[in-house]
Amino acid sequence: MVFTTPAVRAIRQRFPDTHISYLVEPGAAPVVAHNPHIDEVIVAPRRSGLNGLAAEAALVRRLRADSYDVAIDFHGGPRASLLTWLSGARVRIGYDVVGRGWMYTRRVGRPRELRARHSVENQWDLLAPFDIAPPGPATFPVEMPVAPSDGAAVDERLARAGVPRGGRVIVMHVSAGNPFRQWPIASFAAVAAELAASDRGHRVVITSGPSDRHAADRVIAAARARLAVGQRDRVLACGDFSLPELRALVDRAALYIGGDSGPLHVAATSHVPIVGLYGPTLPARSAPWRAAVWPAESIEIHGLPCRPCDQRSCTPGDFRCLAWIQPQQVIDGARRALARASSSPC
Predict the structure, then answer these.
(1) Predicted confidence (pLDDT) per residue in 110-131, tens digit
(2) b/e for 101-122, b at 16 or more Cβ within 10 A?
């Protein structure tokens, strides 16, 4: 979702007077809810049973009634392909996926191998029919605007946790969508404790996905156990953050640390310095897509023949691509990112 936002901006610039709708499932809708280049966000929940079929039919009727000229399928999954076809748009653009390519009027090749090419550029291939120039992270960055209400809610929560308005907040996101992207709890705790101990002005906020709250609790407990009694309040438990609140939180941060998952790319829509941990994925494919003036450090293990992988099975069995990253590498990356940010004229 985040990686499609540069393409949305490009379409708006190329066709300033067109009506742009974005069809999205509920979980990712906040990414585009306040996007200034989109006229309408259509949220399409997944439902099962007869109610689900009825809702899907109603959605198709709505799309057909709106008489779209062009439909672009950035997702390429079965449901997205089918809805693109059923929309009735005269021009339907999508990847040439086996078994579904016939649903599009214009098909774009997508190699099956994992290339060292950024996902934004892969999405951009779908804009070829519109004669749009190649993308650049400075001119077409990823975007997710912050609603004022979300910023105010985050300010209030940080204030309750004892963080002053000008306090240096370090956000550390410690959960991931699958075990291939889960850095060890002990490693996160070691980094949090070191950054908290090294500067009395640092407040480390540990975040996680709502289904992985226990990971955040374990990191907080382990980090505080490493600290002197008077330093333990520098590692904070602030509860769950919604996706819009997480985006507002990183605007308050001096640094973001996390694995290659959705929250890292939400953070990339801000100007916060980022330290990204890459295991089965490559920075060349998913590093923060924004101007180089905003610091981003990519931490990875080089030279592993099994990397990158499709994240279906771990050939060595120990998730070494991520587990072998040492806390000191991340600490060093954090210090480099903070130093670059403090010396930047921006």
Answers:
(1) 877 777 899 999 999 999 999 9
(2) bebbbebbeeeeeeeeebbbeb
Domains (ranges, CATH) in the chain? Answer: 2-130 (3.40.50.2000), 148-343 (3.40.50.2000)
CB atoms within 10 A of CB 61: 11
Q: What is the pLDDT of residues 135-193, one digit of tens each?
A: 999 999 999 999 999 999 999 999 999 887 777 899 999 987 788 888 999 999 999 99
- Give DSSP secondary structure letters for 190-211: HHHHHHHHH-TTEEEEEE--GG
- Furthest C-alpha separation in the chain: 66
To the question of pTM greater than 0.70 for the whole model, the response is yes
d(CA 213, CA 77): 29
Q: Which residues of 202-222 are buried (b: 16+ CB within 10 A; e: fewer)?
A: bbbbbbbbeebeebbebbbeb
Distance (Å, whole) CA 249 – CA 258: 14
